[in-house]
Design goal:
single chain; 496 residues; mainly alpha; Helix Hairpins; 2 domains; three-stranded mixed β-sheet; 88% helix; 1% strand; rod-shaped; Chemotaxis protein; Chemotax_Me-accpt_rcpt; methylation; transmembrane signaling receptor activity
Length: 496
């Protein structure tokens, strides 16, 4: 037997106890009437047996419909006993209507109908017996019209009470259905929203509609909780990635900031070096100008030297020509000396032939021959010297020509060197300007890099805040994950 029937039986058993109390109260009232009207035995026997019988049945069949029906009949027996004890006083008939109303507490139409039938049988049978002279009293005055009038009111009240009992039973059934539904809703720590109240009624219908709406709402909550769990998992993963990304961003920003500091230092160093290079290039340019001037002076000196070498070459060539002429003269002198030597030899021969007379002449001829010989020797020596002088002059002339050519080449190279120095000066000037521009640009770049470093510092602060926010978001996502887990556990208790 389910919990709803047990609840209804509890109500019926409670009603049975109430009705037994009313029954025993009527028994006491009947005893009072019995003693009052000197008929206590009838009250004791009939009332006592009725109360004892219903009390025993209440222990044997508690909460049963048979007991309720017998309780309705017992009420009418006690009412008939009181009417009979009071000798049919019409006011005691009111007890029938009161007891019929009391039976409404059962929320069952059958006890009311049983009681009404018992009252009808009592009135018809006992009034018939009364009219035949039996010691039974239903009414003191009146006839069958009064009996049927009483019966009419009993039927009218019974009809009303039966209708009220049915409505009360429906309400009770709906209430019990609600209790059953509430019991079914929560079972084994689970909430079952699929159960519906089988009874038909406005309350049951509204409650079923409420369960439908609650089921839809709970189903949506369950689905949303699952979606929320998935979103929480995705948020946790995303938050973890965000936290990792924020940490990487913070590390990379710190590295970039350190790199920017190093780059700023390097740019400043480059700017200093560029400035020094510009100054050095300016100095080199000045020295190049000075070298160009010196080269021009050297070029002029080399030009003058080339001219002098040319003059010396011409002089040496003239000297060589004169040496050749002297050599020719020496050849003539040598020839004359040879002829003189022959003449002296001939004179000596002739003096020898002359004898003593030609001895002086022979001595002179011998001196002349010696002189001619020395002249020939000197001529040969001079000729040798002239040959050497000619060879030296030729060599000197060749050297002079080579020197002149070298001087001319040196002049050409000097001009080229001058041109190169001029070009180099221009290039150095351009390099100097470029170094100046580089120094200026690097200074501007240093300022920009400093600004970038400051911006990176701001970005680092933002990255630190992002990292803190990511950590807080990670904590909140963990809390959200715990809440979604709890919501999932709670939603898993619902069966929709």
């Amino acid at each position: 037997m389910n919990q709803s029937l047990t609840s209804l039986q509890r109500h019926h058993r409670q009603a049975d106890r109430v009705m037994r109390g009313v029954l025993w109260a009527m028994f006491l009232y009947a005893l009072i009437l019995g003693f009052w009207f000197d008929n206590a035995g009838q009250a004791l026997v009939i009332g006592g047996l009725t109360c004892v019988t219903l009390t025993v049945l209440g222990q044997l069949i508690p909460g049963q419909r048979l007991l309720r029906s017998l309780m309705g009949a017992a009420f009418m027996v006690m009412a008939a006993l009181q009417i009979n004890l009071a000798h049919g006083v019409v006011e005691f008939h009111f007890g029938i209507f009161v007891l019929l109303a009391v039976l409404l507490f059962y929320r069952d139409w059958l006890p009311i109908l049983t009681a009404a039938g018992t009252a009808a049988v009592h009135h018809l049978v006992f009034f018939a017996l009364q009219t035949r002279g039996f010691d039974l009293v239903v009414i003191q005055q009146g006839g069958w019209g009064t009996i049927f009038l009483h019966a009419f009111y009993v039927v009218l009240e019974t009809a009303i009470l039966v209708y009220l009992a049915q409505q009360s039973h429906k309400a009770a059934a709906e209430g019990e259905g609600l209790m059953t539904a509430t019991d079914r809703l929560v079972s084994d720590d689970k909430i079952n929203l699929t159960y519906r109240i089988p009874q038909r009624g406005p309350i049951a219908q509204r409650f079923n509609e409420f369960l439908d709406e609650l089921g839809e709402l709970t189903g949506a909550v369950v689905r949303d909780s699952r979606q929320l769990e998935q979103s929480a998992d995705h948020l946790a993963a995303t938050t973890d990635q965000l936290r990792s990304g924020a940490n990487r961003q913070l590390d990379e920003t710190a590295q970039m900031l350190a790199a920017m500091d190093e780059m700023v230092a390097a740019i400043e160093s480059v700017a200093d070096h560029a400035s020094e290079a510009a100054r050095a290039a300016q100095g080199i340019n000045e020295k190049s100008d000075a070298g160009d001037r010196l080269l021009r002076v050297s070029q002029q000196a080399i030009d003058a030297l080339a001219e002098r070498l040319n003059d010396a070459n011409q002089t040496v060539q003239a000297l060589a020509e004169q040496s050749e002429q002297v050599s020719k003269v020496l050849e003539v002198i040598g020839s004359i000396a040879g002829q003189t030597n022959l003449l002296a030899l001939n004179a000596a021969i002739e003096a020898a032939r002359a004898g003593e007379a030609g001895r002086g002449f022979a001595v002179v001829a011998d001196e002349v021959r010696n002189l001619a010989q020395r002249t020939a020797d000197s001529t040969r020596e001079i000729h040798d010297i002239l040959e050497r002088l000619q060879h030296g002059s030729q060599a000197a002339a060749q050297v002079m020509r080579s020197s002149r050519e070298a001087a001319l080449d040196c002049v050409t190279d000097s001009r080229r060197a001058g041109e190169l120095l001029v070009a180099m000066g221009d290039e150095i000037e351009a390099i100097s300007r470029m170094n100046t521009l580089i120094a200026s640009s690097t200074q501007e770049q240093s300022a920009v890099s400093t600004q970038i470093a400051q911006n990176l510092q701001s970005i680092r602060e933002v990255a630190e805040r992002n990292a803190d926010d990511a950590r807080r978001l990670d904590q909140e996502s963990e809390q959200l994950q715990a809440l979604t887990d709890r919501l999932e556990r709670l939603s898993s208790r619902f069966h929709v």
